[in-house]
């Protein structure tokens, strides 16, 4: 992915979680002031193929449902917070890939759903009307499960971080992640035709991304702080003197400007490594200072 990051990283959207929250805010305004418009914004593959191509983008405006404004605001704040943390941990480019990957899989899943519907339920669709059938199905393809994938990613990256359940009971995020995963599996098994496709397609990014980026799950809050300190050092470094050097390959920020460098918390001494050797080096035990 690093090769693509060097080429397309400059196009990554910063503070993507904030952008998504702004989209939800627009969606809530539309649902409150122009409820008749919302059905024309949903992801409906049948309507897209009949000329309503704007739905490929506008479905992102449809916010998660909720009747209690307090819990809606609390939920949006929570997802914005954990999303911003993930972006700072993974980097803007990787977080963009994760979120837009989930959106792309959702779009592809909706069209796959339509194809399977015509393949296995053609007579039912013809009898009840294809337009009405897929209009009902479009309600299932929204950003709810993408938000769930953000939480699962956070739980996998920071399993030992504690949150207050119901503002009272402290519980580690990894256990909430397990509970959510079990709920999703149950919803998938018990759900109808539309639910199965919506869950599978929206969460596929979680499966794909972490099968190819397992090392990102080993980061901890101290390493996040070190990454931010590194970026600030790079911005202040105008004299050409290198401040970071990999203890294995000897590369510096001058040799590889896009490379991230971090200290290893398991090595005895101030041993710094590039991102390629951070998780593959042999830990140094005993007193030492680099």
Describe the structure.
- It is a single chain.
- The chain has 290 residues and is mainly α.
- The chain contains 13 helices and four strands.
- The strands form two sheets. It has a two-stranded antiparallel sheet with strand order 1-2.
- Helix 5 (69-90) packs across helix 6 (92-120).
- It is elongated, with a radius of gyration of 22 Å.
- It starts with a helix and ends in a 16-residue tail after the last strand.
- The model has no long low-confidence stretch (mean pLDDT 81).
Low-confidence stretches: none
Helical content (DSSP H or I, runs of 4+): 55-70%
Label the overall shape. Answer: elongated
H/E element sequence = HHHHHHHHHEEHHHHEE
The order of strands across the largest sheet is 1-2
How big is the Rg?
22 Å
Taking the sheet with the most strands, its summary is: 2 strands, antiparallel
Q: Provide a count of the helices.
A: 13
State which percent range the strand residues make up: under 5%
Mean pLDDT: 81
Distance between the termini: 30 Å
Structural category = mainly alpha
Total DSSP E strands = 4
As an assembly, this protein is single chain
Descriptors for this entry?
290 residues, mainly alpha, two-stranded antiparallel ribbon, two-stranded antiparallel sheet, 13 helices, 4 strands, 58% helix, elongated
Condensed summary:
The chain has 290 residues and is mainly α. It is built from 13 helices and four strands.
Strands, helices and their partners?
Blueprint: H1 2-8, H2 16-33, H3 45-49, H4 55-58, H5 69-90, H6 92-120, H7 122-128, H8 130-137, H9 144-157, E1 162-165, E2 169-172, H10 173-190, H11 193-202, H12 204-212, H13 221-236, E3 261-263, E4 272-274
Antiparallel strand pairs: 1-2, 3-4
């Amino acid at each position: 992915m690093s090769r693509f990051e060097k080429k397309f990283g400059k196009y990554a959207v910063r503070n993507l979680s904030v952008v998504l929250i702004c989209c939800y805010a627009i969606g809530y305004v539309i649902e409150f002031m122009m409820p008749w418009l919302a059905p024309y914004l949903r992801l409906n593959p049948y309507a897209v193929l009949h000329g309503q191509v704007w739905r490929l983008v506008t479905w992102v405006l449809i916010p998660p449902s909720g009747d209690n404004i307090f819990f809606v605001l609390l939920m949006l704040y929570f997802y914005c917070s954990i999303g911003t943390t993930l972006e700072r941990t993974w980097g803007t480019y990787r977080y963009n890939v994760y979120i837009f990957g989930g959106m792309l899989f959702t779009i592809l899943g909706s069209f796959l759903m339509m194809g399977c519907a015509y393949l296995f339920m053609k007579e039912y669709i013809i009898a009840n009307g294809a337009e009405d059938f897929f209009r009902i199905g479009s309600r299932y393809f929204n950003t709810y499960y993408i938000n769930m994938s953000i939480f699962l990613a956070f739980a996998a990256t920071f399993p030992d971080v504690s949150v207050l359940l119901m503002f009272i009971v402290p519980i580690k995020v990894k256990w909430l992640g397990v509970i959510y995963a079990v709920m999703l599996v149950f919803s998938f098994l018990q759900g109808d035709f539309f639910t199965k496709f919506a869950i599978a397609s929206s969460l596929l990014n979680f499966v794909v991304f972490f099968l190819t980026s397992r090392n990102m799950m080993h980061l901890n809050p101290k390493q996040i702080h070190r990454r931010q300190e590194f970026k600030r050092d790079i911005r202040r470094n105008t004299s050409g003197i290198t401040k970071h050097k990999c203890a294995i390959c000897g590369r510096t920020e001058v040799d590889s400007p896009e490379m991230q460098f971090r200290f290893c918390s398991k090595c005895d001494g101030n041993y710094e490594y590039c991102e390629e050797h951070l998780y593959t080096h042999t830990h140094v035990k005993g007193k030492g200072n680099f």
